[in-house]
Amino acid sequence: MNHHRKPIIAANWKMFKTVPEARETAVQLKVLLDGGPALHSREVVVCPPFTALAAVKEALSGSGIQLGGQNLHWEDEGAFTGEISAGMLLDCGCRYVLLGHSERRQFFFETDEAVSRKLRAVLSTPLIPVLCVGESLAQREGGRMEAVIEAQLAGALAGVEASRLDRLVVAYEPVWAIGTGKTATPAIADQVHGMIREWLARRCSADMAAAVRILYGGSVKPANAGELMARENIDGALVGGASLDADSFARIVEFK
Ligand code: PGA
C-alpha cells in the first residue's frame, strides 16, 4: 500500500446467495463497518449476483459501501439472451464492474478480445472497470507467468488510448490461489504487481502507473490481509470465499 493510492477492498460473491441471504449479509456489513475508520480511508465494494443487486443496493444505502457487477456484455442493448449491459448495471446502482475474471475466461471461454470489447464499453460509461489478470499453475511452473499476464493486459487494452485509462483498476489473481486456500506470498504478489505497474508505465504513462490501484485476489482472509496490504504495490483485495461472511469480510476491510 502506498498512501497516495486509496485501497479498494472488493467482495466477489460469485454465484452465491439468494436475495434474502444477500440482503442479510449486506445489512450485517453495514452495521459492522458503520462509523468505523475504515470507510474513510478505503473504498469498499460488494459484487453480488445480478439477481441481488437491487436488494443489496437498498440494504447498503447511506453506508458509503459501493456496488459492483461481476460481468457485463459490451453492447448497450439488443438480442443477447442472458446478458446484462453497462447501462443496466448503472441502472442498478453499480459503480464498479469486474472484467475478465479467471472463472469467466476458464468456464465461459472469454477471450482477451472479448475482455477488450467489454473494457471499451465500460470506459464509455461512468463505471469503473476492475480488470482481472492472472496465470495458472502450469503457466507459472512453465516460466510463462510474465508473458501470460502481459498478453492479458495488452489484449484487454488493445486499441484503448492511454488517456482513457485513468479510471482503470487491475486485479492480479493467480488462478492457482483462487479458492484453493493457497495465497501467493506477499513477496510474490508484490513482485507481480510491480511488474504490472511497470508494464502500465510503458504502455500508458508513469503518472497513470503510479496512480493505478492493483488489487490482489486469491484466498485473501482476515489472517493474511494485513501482510499483503503492507506491500508497496498491493493496493487492495478482491475477495471471494472470505467475503461471503460479513464478519470475515469486515475484518479484511479493517486490515491493519
Ligand atoms: P477466493 O476468490 O478469495 O475465494 O480465492 C477470489 C476471486 O476469485 O475473486
Strand-helix topology:
Elements: E1 8-12, H1 19-33, H2 38-41, E2 43-47, H3 53-60, E3 66-69, H4 86-91, E4 94-99, H5 102-107, H6 112-123, E5 128-133, H7 137-141, H8 145-157, E6 169-172, H9 186-203, H10 206-211, E7 213-217, H11 222-229, E8 236-239, H12 246-253
The structure holds 2-phosphoglycolic acid.
2-phosphoglycolic acid is lined by residues 12, 173, 178-179, 217-220, 238-242.
Structural features, described:
The protein is of the alpha/beta class and 256 residues long. The protein has one domain (8-253): Alpha-Beta Barrel (TIM Barrel). Helices cover 43% and strands 15% of the residues. The chain contains twelve helices and eight strands. The protein has helices at 19-33, 38-41, 53-60, 86-91, 102-107, 112-123, 137-141, 145-157, 186-203, 206-211, 222-229, 246-253; strands spanning 8-12, 43-47, 66-69, 94-99, 128-133, 169-172, 213-217, 236-239. Strands 1-2-3-4-5-6-7-8 form an eight-stranded parallel barrel, surrounded by six helices. β3 (66-69), α4 and β4 form a beta-alpha-beta unit. α1 runs parallel beside α12 (246-253), α8 (145-157) crosses α9 (186-203) and α11 (222-229) runs parallel beside α12. The radius of gyration is 17 Å and the shape is globular. Bound molecules: 2-phosphoglycolic acid. The site of 2-phosphoglycolic acid (PGA) has 13 residues, from β8. Residues 12, 173, 178-179, 217-220, 238-242 line the site of 2-phosphoglycolic acid.
